[in-house]
Structure formats: C-alpha cells, structure tokens
C-alpha cells in the first residue's frame, strides 16, 4: 500500500490557486489510473485504486492547508499506515515554476501544511514532492500570491508540470524514494 497526499484548500474559489497544485496533481493521477471517485473519509477526500499491481490511496485533506496534518494522522490511524509508505505532494515557493524537487526530510520552510504534518507525525522525515511555484516579486504578499491563480503563461506550462509529477509518483511506486530523487531532481 502506498499513499499520496496532495495539499490544498477545499472549495471552488481555491481550485486553480498555486497553493492547490497538490490537489491538481492527485486529480491528474486519478484520471490517468482510472481512480474515478473520491469519498469523504473523516477530514479528507480519499480515492483508492490499483497502479501496476500496487494499492494506492490518494488523500486530499479537507481541513484547509494549515491543518493538513490532522487529516493525515486520521488516515494513518485508521489504515494503520506507515509514514514510509506516504508521499506528500505540495507547492514550493523556493523551487522554480516548472520544476519539481523531491526530498525525504527537512523543515517546513514556511509552508504551514508541512508544519502541520510535522506536528501531527512527530517527525520531519517523510517523502515529499515539492512542485515549484517560484517566489513572487519583492514586496508582494506571500499569502496573496499562493492563494492567487496561476498566470496565463504558467497555465500553458502547467499540464507538463502535472505530468512530470505524476511520472515521479509512478516511478516511486516501483523504485526506492532515493532512486526516484536521483532521477527527478533537476
């Protein structure tokens, strides 16, 4: 069993926000692998399917970004899931738009969703796929930036970014995360 947790905020108004790229990736992955519906499970929407012989869960916390760890902890407790089988997929200001960066440990780096996950799991060691959204221009409010929609030029490139992230997710199902990092870190 493997689980991918896409971070984002629930609701139509957030759907195309930079902060919701984790949800966008899970939707793309679900469509590709025929995971047709997400069910309400506690504090999250949960999809499940089979990807090349591996049972895969797709978890979208519905707690809003800053409380993402609550939904993850609830999933882990109910399914007796080990954190080593879980990968968090989320937006990253410090990675250039169009690139992804994989890590298995580190601080939250100002990301409140990751801060919540660290708080609820008690560790900074877990698999992460960070999707670059770049930093805004100096003086631009960070919260306003991450809660804004992608620009037209970014939207033109977004499909490729989502596909690249899904490719890394698929690769990680059959290879160790260290090998996935080596292949996909640019």
Report on the structure:
The chain is α/β, with parallel strands linked by helices and 186 residues long. It contains six helices and seven strands, in the order βαβββαββαβααα. It has helices spanning 21-32, 68-79, 112-121, 142-146, 152-174, 177-184; strands at 2-6, 39-41, 44-51, 54-61, 86-92, 100-105, 125-132. α1 (21-32) packs across α5, α2 (68-79) packs parallel to α3 (112-121) and α5 packs antiparallel against α6 (177-184). The longest helix is centred in the C-terminal third of the chain and has 23 residues, at 152-174. The chain starts with a strand and ends with a helix.
Could you spell the SSE succession in H and E letters? Answer: EHEEEHEEHEHHH
Uncertain ranges: none
Number of helices: 6
Report the portion of residues in β strands.
15-25%
CATH topology: Rossmann fold
CATH architecture descriptor name: 3-Layer(aba) Sandwich
- How many domains in all? 1
| Principal-axis shape | globular
- What is the multimeric organization of the chains shown? single chain
CATH H-tier superfamily: Peptidyl-tRNA hydrolase
| Strand order across the largest sheet | 2-3-4-1-5-7-6
Average of the residue pLDDT scores: 96
Mind summarizing the main beta sheet? 7 strands, mixed
Q: What's the gyration radius in Å? A: 15 Å
Structural class: alpha/beta
**Gap between N and C termini, in Å?**
28 Å
Relative helix content: 25-40%
In the CATH scheme, the class would be Alpha Beta
Extended strand count: 7
